[in-house]
Predict the structure.
Amino acid sequence: MKYLLLFIVSLCFQFLNAQPDSLYIKEKKQKYTGPEWVQENKASFDLSEVAFVNWNSGGSNSISGLLGLKSKLNYKDKFFVWKNNVEVRYGVNKQEARELRKTDDLFEINSNIGYKPDSLSSWFYSARLNLRTQLTNGYNYPNRDEPISRLFAPGYLFFGGGMEYGKNIDKLSFYFSPLTLKATFVLDEDLANAGSFGVTPAVLDSDGNVIVPGEQIRSEVGVLVTNSYEMEVVENINIKNQVSLYSDYVNNFGNLDLDWRIDFDFKVNSFVRATLGSHLRYDDDVKTQIPSEIEGEFDESGAKVQWKQFLGVGVAVDF
């Protein structure tokens, strides 16, 4: 895992040192016109469906939908950059003879502020805040009796300061924070008592009764490195790469938490577009469970890489 993360860090530096000319061209063409606020709002809906009638190979009818909402409010002048955004995603899938199941669930808030003492510099003194959670219960299907996640169970908060590089900061950013607070919230009594998502579990007596409740907040202080990169590959095809690496100073320093997302956006026309994405996560504090020798019980196993791939075709509207 450490070799993979070192490879990702090296990629970040390669992006930094080998930027495409298009980013520099856009930088040179821009002229300062004074302080400005820019607001963008986008709503999208992706739909996929498959149906079978007398299909001799067999198959199950299904339909999936994904709703997305994004809102950005950014400020920029000669010395300051302040970027704010809120994103909500929710997706469901319905297959024949099977209950409705959740496929995506995200609520995220970001606020980044940067200051550069020299108007010609590409380096910023920066502070960042990120808060993310989900909206509805998550289940280990087909079991819908015991949720494995809820609203703010988990919830994650990152807050810290450092330095950020951005020749054209809206398209390319490299951020390093030597001091970042990471707080993990598990605001559900049952999940907190079970020690889910890395919080301290409850202390139980011999009969399984709770003596000391599990902690609902886990706090860490560590180092955070991020890289974001966005460009147009060819006409009407954009790629956005986002990498985040975090390591706690106190708890096993060197064990990195990874969040790596790559998204391709294919524009058909002003409204119709397709998306193809990959989302990779690794959190050393999120342990997996494997079936125990005792029927109905589970034993804790180590952390594992989490991966999600998605492809959607739908409509997107700016407003």
About this structure: The first strand starts at residue 36 and ends at 50.
